[in-house]
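QUALITY CONTROL LOG
STEP: pairwise intake check
CHECKER ROLE: data steward
CRITERIA: each record must contain a sequence immediately followed by its structure tokens, with no blank fields

ENTRY 1 OF 2
RESULT FIELD BELOW
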Amino acid sequence: MAKEKNPSPSSATSQPKSPPRSHRRRSVKRRAKPPPPLFHRQTAMDSNGIGETQSDIRREIASLEKAKAEINDRISALQARLDYSLKEGSKETNLCPLRPTETPFNGQLSADMIYRYSRHLLLPSFGVEAQGNLLKSSVLVIGAGGLGSPALLYLAACGIGRVGIVDNDVVELNNLHRQIIHTEAYIGRSKVESAAAACRAINSSIQLVEHKEAFRTSNALEIMSKYDIVVDATDNAPSRYMISDSCVVLGKPLISGAALGLEGQLTVYNYNGGPCYRCLFPTPPPTTACQRCADSGVLGVVPGIIGCLQALEAIKVAGAVGEPLSGRMLLLDALSARIRVVKIRGRSLQCEACGENATMTAQQFRDFDYEKFTQSPLTTSPLKLQLLPSEARITSREYKEINVKGEAHVLVDVRPAHHYKITSLPNSLNIPFSSLDGRLSEISEALEREELIKSGDASRAASLYVICRRGNDSQRAVDYLHKVGFTTAKDIIGGLESWAHDVDPKFPTY
């Protein structure tokens, strides 16, 4: 979370009296940074729009949104303290409860802890001992996205003593339908910062550690070594192998979840002699089978369900209660409302990571190339293929000029039909790449019609252009079209995303 500084004069008047000396330094740090003075801001009203660019306006909006988020955080914290004091009838000196790290847990819960976690304590199968185990434990959550959001909220709420958050991404608008820990006020800001703020608003008595960096072989062991339990909330194959291997090297239990489309799965690896990820998947799946939410979509509530279950498994492991999902896997089919738990193979004696003759050491882990091993990238950036020569491709700006000049052409959109319904360019012909070979006659007919309409002469050839979402399937399609006789077909570089970025900023992206 961004460093909080002195609150604005308007918020300072609503604060309670100063806390005891032992709390003053911490409360000063928690104050919100005031917004910039009005006379330092140049607005459209100041200049009547003269000389002001869209970039200036965006920067102004971003600055105001940041100030608004900090003020809202401060208000939420003050309101929570006020509500607590009114409910308990406590003195102002008790408004900021001590962190567990400041009051070592010796098996005796404080009055505040008893009241906060009372519903846990009432459970005969949980009680004081399990709650004490949570307060003494630490959990590292890798990924503050769809899975990590609910997991983090519940781990913070239940009283895990120390929670670490790893992510190097920023909050985007298209995250919010599933990543419920983030809000609109944090768009464009660090996910770790946003998640930590939300967790602190729920439980200010726990320790939150922010790791605003990518989880890589160079830093994985150093970060992970400081925690008892690991929650894998990532969504790509190289990360899964890397996190599992690092857990094996350090001897950490791993709570692994996955969600895609309308399905999800969950299991616990490397726990009490159980299998690791490599035991089940010694060979990486083909890249075509490794789909991501950004490409295939996901119903927002599905990672929410799996993320909650990841928190549950972490609580069971940390609290030493129940029967964690080691050696078993939970499978969720959201569309049919079916949940199954299946037995999975046990630890493999031949596993390269945890088997009897395994040689995975810390140094070998650091030197291992997980992107090469899985043939897929660690980054979330979309794949960019380079299949065609430059003469078989045009830019989105060049295609715009073709439209403006009214040149005879046909534009084939090779996205799936349900993508085409989301948005499309005018007068494009939707032929999904998967059915292209069976619909070549439609392309020929469309070219003939275009030639007659534009020139009245079917002998004058119309051009053929192909577009998709990001410029990958369109290259595959053009490569195929060249082989079957449409030798002049060209791909539009970057697809519809390039059109939205370079030609029409108002064109919808998804």
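ENTRY 2 OF 2
RESULT FIELD BELOW
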Amino acid sequence: MEVCSSLGKSAKMKGSAEVTLCKLKCWAFLVGRIQNVLSLFCAVLTENKILFHSASYQRLSDACRALESLIYPLKYSYPYIPILPAQLLEVLSSPTPFIIGVHSLFCNDIHELLDVIIADLDGGTIKIPECIHLSQLPEPLLYQTQTALSLVLHPDLETADYAFPPPRSALSHSKMLDKEVRAVFLRLFAQLFQGYRSCLQLIRIHSEPVINFHKAAFLGQRGLIENDFLTKVLHGMAFAGFVSDRGPPYRSCDLFDELVAFEIERIKSEESHSSKMLKHIRELAEQLFKNENPNPHMAFQKVPRPTEGSHLRVHVLPFPRINEAQVQDLIQEGLAKNHSIPPATRVERKCVVPAGPPVVSIVEKSSTVFNSAQRLEVVRNCISSIFENKILETEKTLPAALRALKGKAARLCLTQELSLHVQQNRAILDHQQFDYIIRMMNCTLQGSSIFLAVN
């Protein structure tokens, strides 16, 4: 499994993303199923501890680098150690999140860890401890990402049951498969953060911009107030760095900015058309590839690889001894040339960052049931159970009633029902009954504050 190293994370150009030459397809094969890939992706975004172990040091460094590159445009802000030395195994007991790789020789030591997600690169499995609740991507983004990864990594799966399969499209080159996997997750982030610029609050410009992100408004507009995954992402250090780097309205733009501003409608229209989705993924992969190869040209090895059996030839002359003084002179000559030539840098062209379309709910309006009669009936039944002191029935219906109170109609229903019960019966509530009412009123006030912030 050969995986190239990174050329640098800071190099960016207009219409492109950061430079990473990791072969993500190889990493996806190492961790096994697509679900394992998504689990590790969600784990790193929700700031969990992730530990890779393998008998190969190369696989460890490749896997850690691949996972870090998947979260672009976010940047990992916690300890990142692709190969942990044996003398530093105590670092695994750190209270902070991390991405660390260890050799399989230390399996007996790492399996005692209770709050670490362990990925076996040789066996293709991951172990999630019972004490960790791993938040997943919200639907329908989870299903769409699984479908897109399946199209890229398992292209024959879609037509495997056809009696007469259609003509196979040209398979992607191994180098392009890596970029296609990255393109899938870049599309995912564009959908997840769509409209984020409308929730930015510029507090100060001089001397350095201070920007705040209105998390409650963004979650409310996206319809994901109760979603653990996005809530954890927005409160993480990676997203704080994202706001700091991408919040300013005038800066250099890249491929992610273009996706969020101009391609959201196209991505939505491709949800039910796998061929169009794959075409867009390959277009993004081409742009990622061009970013890593801005000046494509034929590369030849300076030292040709010897042919098979060349070492058995009798006439091969022994390799001459190296002249140390001559080698040192060549090194000094090269260093002198490098000092005299200015370093090659990419010119960053700054522009006004396009705002893109406004924030919309990730859930279709037809599927929202906040204002349905069934939800309102749940609220009424819960209030009746509280006033009648039916504790068991209250415990059953309270969670559903609290979820229903995220809707405006349900909050109005609560005030009406409380008013009716006060008028009909001036009952004295005990502490437990009063606590239930307070919890429902708190939920109602929180929903109302978010609604006002959004509008």
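INTAKE CHECK: passed for both entries
DESCRIPTIVE NOTE, ENTRY 2: Residues 24-127 form a domain with the Rossmann fold fold (CATH 3.40.50.11500).
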